[in-house]
Write a structure and sequence with these properties.
Elements lengths: L13 H20 L2 H5 L9 E3 L6 E3 H15 L2 E14 L2 E14 L2 E16 L2 E10 L13
Parallel strand pairs: 1-6
Antiparallel strand pairs: 1-2, 3-4, 4-5, 5-6
Length: about 150
């Protein structure tokens, strides 16, 4: 039997890219509006859903913990604005993933804060609807450019 390495392109279709960009737009709008119902609807209802934020304690699993995490974010910030840049989207079958630079601009206790972060998402299409199944937001450490470690 002849085994060959099969390289499968995982380039997302134009339709998938369009849908992912639309979900990111909806996510940013719901966050800015502090619209809990709209933001939660973007996520999978599965108990193995995982969302990881920039804080050490921001690792949530399942829809109930996700809702508590967003409630905390929205309660602590007076204003929230999310901007995505340099979005990349790939997919295979009914799964897509995206990465982007995500600037989180918030006003907390009267102070404007910008968190220049990185974000990745995993989406799954179910019954012709794409849902977020995984999210990871991080803020890069402050090491010098060209250095791998902050020493």
């Amino acid at each position: 039997m002849n085994h060959k390495n099969v390289v499968k392109k995982m380039e997302a279709s134009k339709d998938t890219v369009k849908v992912v960009h639309e979900i990111l737009k909806q996510y940013a709008q719901a966050y800015a509006d502090k619209d809990m119902e709209s933001i939660i609807k973007l996520f999978s209802p599965d108990p193995d859903l995982v969302a990881i934020g920039a804080g050490r304690d921001e690792w949530v699993k399942g829809p109930e913990e996700l809702k508590k995490g967003f409630q905390r974010d929205m309660t602590q910030a007076d204003d929230v604005k999310v901007d995505f840049e340099n979005v990349t989207v790939s997919s295979s079958g009914n799964v897509a993933w995206a990465s982007a630079q995500m600037n989180l601009n918030v006003k907390v206790e009267g102070q404007a804060i910008t968190m220049p972060g990185r974000v990745s998402f995993v989406f799954e299409e179910r019954n012709n609807k794409w849902l977020i199944n995984h999210l990871h937001f991080s803020v890069p450490d402050e090491q010098e450019e060209g250095k791998s470690y902050p020493v």
